[in-house]
Design goal:
This protein has 76 residues and is largely without helices or strands. It has one domain. It is built from one helix and two strands, in the order ββα. The longest helix is centred in the C-terminal third of the chain and has 6 residues. It is elongated, with a radius of gyration of 16 Å. It starts with 5 loop residues before the first strand and ends with a helix. 21% of the residues are buried. The mean pLDDT is 86. Bound molecules: zinc ion (2 copies). The site of one zinc ion has 9 residues, from loops.
């Protein structure tokens, strides 16, 4: 089964699947902007979890939702 989920572009690292870490703070949850008084990373609210994929490392719909062929040619 071919998965249509793709690597989350916002994750800190990962080749084919993101590691689920916030790229702004690399999963530490610490605000890397030293000029800010806010101690927590504003992008993940200090959780260290990538907000784009909720820490799953993948984005996109499940292959069961839409058959791959339909996304190419559309339903007739
Ligand atoms: Zn992500
Ligand atoms: Zn963060």
């Amino acid at each position: 089964m071919h998965s249509r989920k793709t690597r989350c572009p916002d994750c800190a690292s990962g080749a084919f699947r993101g590691n689920g870490n916030c790229a702004k703070c690399d999963g530490t949850g610490i605000n890397t902007n030293v000029s800010s008084i806010q101690p927590e990373c504003p992008y993940c609210k200090g959780s260290g979890i990538c907000g784009e994929c909720q820490g799953t490392g993948l984005i996109g719909s499940d292959p069961e939702d839409t058959p791959f062929i339909l996304t190419l040619f559309g339903p007739k």
